[in-house]
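Deliverable D2.4 — example input (structure tokens):
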């Protein structure tokens, strides 16, 4: 029953097509490949070859004597280290690209946002007086690279956090020293026979995660903006309908923006367009998938075809000539799917090869040349097409709400501010804020939790910011347009209509969760809502998480003072003590806590309860949705009951 596998009608349609064509998908494999219940709970230790040791039933410790608490904490710590390493390596690549651009070695790229360069130079302590853009860019890149190898002191970007948060990190020994150092130490501590105290292991997991959030990821976002431009709002279409039956379709999938940026330029090359026509196509159509899709969506309006679980189904349309990938979240199954069609899967990163895929290694110093080769390869596949079936589903979205634009939107170029947002939280028009982010997971109904949680939050006057696969899910359901106000509560709707923004704000790819950290910092320092991120009526939610990167992200938000809720299931269920430590223990340590809750309805209940508790702690008026109900321009005055209004049982009138 494909309707139970995905909440998305287009995905449901393509699942039926894939099934008819014999294409294996993650939805199918999730039915036959069930998670090991012991490993799923974090109770399996395979860190040495005396194991794996499965702590279940009467087995309460491993061969070495490691307890369930130690094993579960080690497994969580290693996952955080892997996620932090993935984001950190992304940030390092962006620093190396900026350095090559500044030295004139990567001539196909340029520094597009000089204002952001000056701002980042200020953060990093780089002198700008009387110096060229190239000189400043080179120094910014070098200082950024030095942050990875830093051995002592603390990361420079920690100074961007609220003052009280910085003091807490130093007082509790959570301030990370160097990005790579914290990842390496996490791996060392969790090696057999090393750190064997769950609380101590988990303490370093937070420090390692902070090296990601306020280090590798934040640098990756800033340096990408410098090179490719800081996003601002623009409109674009989404979902499978963006594929074109009469054009060469190239899907960009992965996370690093260097390849997508070069592809955006070269698909408009007249020579390549003419070459495509010579093969029988009317043109070249570039679309995105996952976070690479978010990168070029928010900067160029390139349409996004889908999120994580849709990658093989895009190939199953028979309309994709090439799927071009770099790293992270790429399923090996795409090659298996491509073998049944004419599609070329092309890997581009020196870090990634997939058996059976074509490898065209990307070099920023030859960006346009290699992008042209990739596009020619895709064009050459076009004549080999067979039957094409593209779902006729296209959704319009408004994206690109960087933290810089949000500040500009509220105060203008010279007086950028978060005062209007803070004031509307204080007066109760907006109940609070939520970051809803993260992956898809094939062991849940695709997109259901994402959409249900977001709709419930905005109905309850909670403004939502979103990144990654949640952002793509929201795009597919029309939640990223100002026209979606019928889902929003009365106070939130009034604010959004006044400013002219959607109640759900797209902030970019998963590495761009650091934009949310910056927003929270600006809210805390603006005044009126406490002095630290932990004071804010705000929550973080990852409804369908699956990646180790998600755990790294969740932990750096916790260490920054946030209450974070994960859906699907818990990787620490094997130890009640570890569950207590990451919730109550971490809240006592740093004001944030991490909880795993598989029921999306309970996630909403817990999120709203936390927001209301933070409002009460700030001595704000209790949230009352009726206070602003009749201030709406389009609100009918004759709805049957308040419950009917909250359920959306009314029609808009002009």
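Example output (designed residues):
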């Amino acid at each position: 029953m494909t309707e139970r596998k995905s909440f998305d009608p287009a995905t449901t349609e393509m699942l039926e097509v894939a099934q008819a064509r014999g294409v294996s998908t993650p939805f199918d494999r999730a039915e036959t490949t069930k998670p090991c219940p012991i490993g799923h709970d974090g109770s399996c230790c395979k860190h040495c070859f005396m194991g794996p040791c499965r702590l279940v039933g009467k087995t309460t410790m491993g061969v070495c004597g490691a307890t369930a608490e130690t094993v579960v904490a080690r497994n969580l710590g290693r996952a955080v280290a892997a996620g932090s390493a993935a984001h950190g390596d992304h940030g390092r690549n962006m620093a190396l690209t900026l350095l090559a651009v500044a030295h004139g070695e990567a001539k196909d790229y340029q520094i597009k946002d000089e204002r952001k360069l000056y701002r980042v130079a200020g953060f990093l302590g780089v002198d700008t007086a009387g110096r060229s853009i190239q000189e400043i860019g080179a120094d910014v890149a070098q200082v950024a690279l030095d942050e990875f190898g830093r051995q002592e002191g603390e990361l420079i970007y920690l100074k961007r956090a609220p003052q009280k948060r910085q003091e807490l990190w130093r007082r509790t020994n959570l301030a990370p020293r160097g990005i790579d150092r914290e990842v390496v130490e996490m791996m060392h501590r969790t090696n057999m026979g090393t750190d064997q105290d769950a609380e101590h292991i988990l303490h370093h997991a937070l420090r390692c995660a902070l090296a990601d959030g306020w280090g590798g990821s934040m640098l990756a976002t800033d340096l990408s903006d410098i090179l490719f431009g800081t996003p601002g709002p623009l409109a674009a279409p989404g979902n499978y309908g963006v594929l074109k039956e009469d054009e060469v379709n190239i899907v960009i999938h992965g996370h690093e923006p260097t390849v997508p940026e070069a592809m955006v330029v070269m698909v408009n090359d007249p020579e390549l367009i003419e070459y495509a026509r010579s093969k029988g196509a009317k043109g070249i159509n570039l679309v995105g998938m996952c976070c690479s899709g978010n990168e070029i969506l928010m900067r160029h309006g390139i349409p996004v075809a889908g999120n994580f679980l849709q990658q093989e189904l895009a190939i199953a349309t028979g309309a994709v000539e090439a799927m071009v990938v770099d790293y992270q979240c790429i399923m090996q199954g795409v090659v298996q799917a491509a073998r049944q069609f004419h599609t070329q899967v092309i890997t581009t990163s020196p870090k990634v090869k997939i058996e059976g895929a074509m490898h065209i290694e990307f070099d920023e110093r030859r960006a346009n040349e290699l992008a042209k080769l990739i596009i020619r390869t895709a064009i050459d596949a076009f004549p080999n097409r067979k039957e094409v079936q593209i779902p006729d589903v296209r959704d319009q979205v408004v994206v690109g709400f960087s933290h810089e634009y949000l500040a500009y939107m509220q105060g203008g170029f010279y007086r950028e501010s978060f005062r209007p947002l803070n004031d509307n939280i204080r007066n109760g028009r907006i109940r609070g804020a939520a970051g809803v982010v993260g992956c898809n997971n094939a062991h849940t109904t695709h997109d259901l939790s994402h959409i249900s949680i977001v709709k419930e939050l905005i109905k309850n006057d909670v403004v939502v910011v979103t990144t990654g696969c949640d952002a793509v899910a929201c795009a597919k359901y029309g939640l990223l347009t100002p026209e979606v106000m019928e889902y929003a509560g009365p106070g939130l709707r009034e604010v959004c209509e006044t400013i002219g923004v959607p109640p759900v704000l797209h902030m970019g790819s998963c590495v761009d969760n650091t934009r949310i950290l910056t927003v929270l910092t600006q809210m805390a320092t603006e005044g009126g809502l406490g002095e630290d991120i932990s004071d804010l009526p705000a929550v973080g939610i990852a409804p369908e998480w699956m990646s180790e990167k998600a755990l790294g992200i969740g932990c750096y938000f916790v260490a920054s003072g946030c209450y974070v809720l994960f859906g699907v299931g818990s990787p620490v269920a094997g130890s009640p003590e570890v569950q207590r430590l990451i919730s109550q223990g971490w809240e006592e340590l740093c004001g944030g806590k991490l909880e795993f809750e598989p029921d999306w309805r309970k996630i909403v209940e817990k999120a709203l309860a936390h927001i209301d508790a933070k409002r009460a702690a700030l001595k704000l008026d209790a949230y009352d949705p009726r206070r602003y109900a009749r201030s709406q321009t389009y609100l009918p005055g004759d709805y049957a009951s308040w419950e009917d209004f909250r359920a959306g049982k009314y029609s808009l009138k002009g």
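The mean pLDDT is 93.
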